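Reopening this ticket.

The earlier resolution said the output was attached, but the attachment link was broken on my side. Pasting everything inline this time so it's all in one place.
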Amino acid sequence: MGTIEATGLAKYYKEVKALDGLDLTVPQGTILSLLGPNGAGKTTAVSILTTLIMPDKGHAMVAGADLVKSPKEVRKRIGLSGQYAAVDENLTGFENLDMIGRLYHLGREKARVRSRELLDRFELDEAGDRPVKTYSGGMRRRLDLAGAIVAEPQVLFLDEPTTGLDPHGRVEMWSVIRELVTKGTTVLLTTQYLEEADRLADDIVVIDHGREIAHGTADQLKATIGGERIEITVAYSAALPETQSILSGFADGDLQVDDHTRTVVAPVIGGAPVFTRALRAIDEAGIEVSDVGLRRPTLDDVFLSLTGRAAEEDTTTDTEGART
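Inline output:
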């Protein structure tokens, strides 16, 4: 039994199937990452599980409360950080967090102490008494996540939480999320950064067109598309056809060719010996290269293999205005 248990969740907007029978199980103290291309249904799933919209079909329990029968109980036990920072820009950072604490009935003193503690944890202590309208986008994102955990929720929903953060801010956010999970918080995470899912998630569900198309750990998903990749970037675009022809003789599967970066990627079996022979063939053909490498599959490779497209920021809006 997981802290999140969902069966057959569905949401339809006229002819659009935003979700079409999605099952999810997230055990306590773990992170499930929900991945999918534009319009796959990730944000719709989060919106349903956080009671922002009701499902047309299906059943879900969140932190022991029935999603449809007891939505108020669900809201008491969860935190949510959405794609856009939900903060009042006319209040200070401290006032935003303090207000959230009061709404969760933490009491005046506890709300104030908790607010200062979170401002410090998210490196916002120096800006805590300034109006949020003076904050940068990254600062607002950090404040929004702080707001989501003021009441130390049992379950935390993070819908693309690090969008707009610089690399330092992203790594810091990952650290905070790991700390929460170590203390027993259950996290459902959607992200456009596959590295984020790779580094954080205990379990990954890939969805497309509102349905699950793959499920497993990052390593299990990578194993489904085979072994290493030879990746060669040529110095001149004119050499791409010959490079592709040579690598096709070593490849165990379809090649990927990126004209813009002048890169050819070939899946291979045999590792370093095959890599060495391929480089020798490229050299003998007189092809000048600017970069070469032998690497394991990444979640990007998995994503491309499963969906036929690269992961992108989810910006699709369905017919009812709900982002999917």
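Reporter confirms the inline version is readable. Confidence is low (pLDDT under 50) at residues 313-324. The CA atoms of residues 162 and 173 lie 7 Å apart.
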